[in-house]
Protein: Queuosine 5'-phosphate N-glycosylase/hydrolase
Amino acid sequence: MPVIRTQSGASEKVLESAQFISEHSKDVTVPAAGVKRAAQKIMERMKSTGYSTAEWKKHQLTPSVANADAIEWIFVVDALNFSFWPSRAAEHEQYTVSLDGKSYRGYWSLCAAINRAQREHIEITRASYYAHASAEQLAHVFRTDDPAIQESIPMLEERIHVLHEVGQVLLAKYGGKFANVVRQCQGSAQMLVETVVREFPCFRDEHEFCGRPVYLYKRAQILVADIWACFEGRGDGLFNDMDQITMFADYRVPQALYHFGALDYSPRLLEYLRRSEIAVQQGDGSQTQPPPQPGLLPSGHPWELEIRGNSIWAVEQIRRHIHASGHSANAILIDFYMWDYAKEHTAAMRTIPIHLTRSKFY
Ligand SMILES: Nc1nc2c(c(CN[C@H]3C=C[C@H](O)[C@@H]3O)cn2[C@@H]2O[C@H](COP(=O)(O)O)[C@@H](O)[C@H]2O)c(=O)[nH]1
Structure:
């Protein structure tokens, strides 16, 4: 019997936070013309490719079978699914993992590292392993192809802490299996998001904006969405309230939204981001321009929250426009499409600066 929700669920808190951020933003807006352009592009794509959850398992790195092992794989990946942003500009210096003759960077390098470990008979998706694995063992799992030229996986210490934290909770309370957490939520995506942020602190993507708490819950929502997509909305992936899940406020989809004109930045924010990017790219100290304020945009900075909150709000406006045009698409499929678009059009996206904060939240 599916759970009937009463108080506002986690994703409703996210959408309400996004609206509040958008209404109180000074440097980021959601232009209606860009929303319309993006909605039309997405509807064209959905008509031509029939974009659906079936796409999820087609990638060579995602599980090809929807079963209990896939849930544990998704949980470990989404617990670590943050901040692959390189600190140097040269692509060949970015953290890279190769598998079956292909090299992967960014999010896919994480998936490749997990799959490589499994090939090496390291039980990286078992809580009994990662809850207590040593820093050396995990540094080996997330090693680069070539430490001589490539930087290490960003934020390795945070990733080790995250694995220990989530693994020990799973062992103590859920028999070591995230599948048990899923099944306890009886088909409610909202309950699962709430349970994840309650039980696993590293998923608590919560901040303060204009003096009040705001909730973004990017990784907790993408975790639920990946399970839903992997199982194509059936079995353990059957949730009765998936349409409440919002866009996942990462650092790629904002680029695609800006590219479509569904997100716009003030001149001063754009100038800051561009200078920060130059500062980061010339990280060897030979900076031709004075660096912006000391350090980069700190995590939780109003500008970072304006970009993330308006991204969620922009996707919601796109979803409403698609719905008003007589088509249906939830925020998840719109998000997946925008993320894949950003990855396919990397060159075009490169001209669009993003906030360069590294954070374990996204
Ligand atoms: N909003 C949103 N953010 C997403 C994803 C995904 C992967 N999902 C795909 C996997 C299977 C399905 O086919 C999905 O399409 C990763 N990320 C985020 O991007 C950032 C990494 O970027 P780069 O450094 O360029 O690889 C990082 O914050 C990561 O958390 C998504 O779907 N939506």
User: Anything to note?
Assistant: The chain has a mean pLDDT of 91. The chain has one domain: 10-344. Residues 10-344 form one domain. The two ends are 33 Å apart (CA to CA).
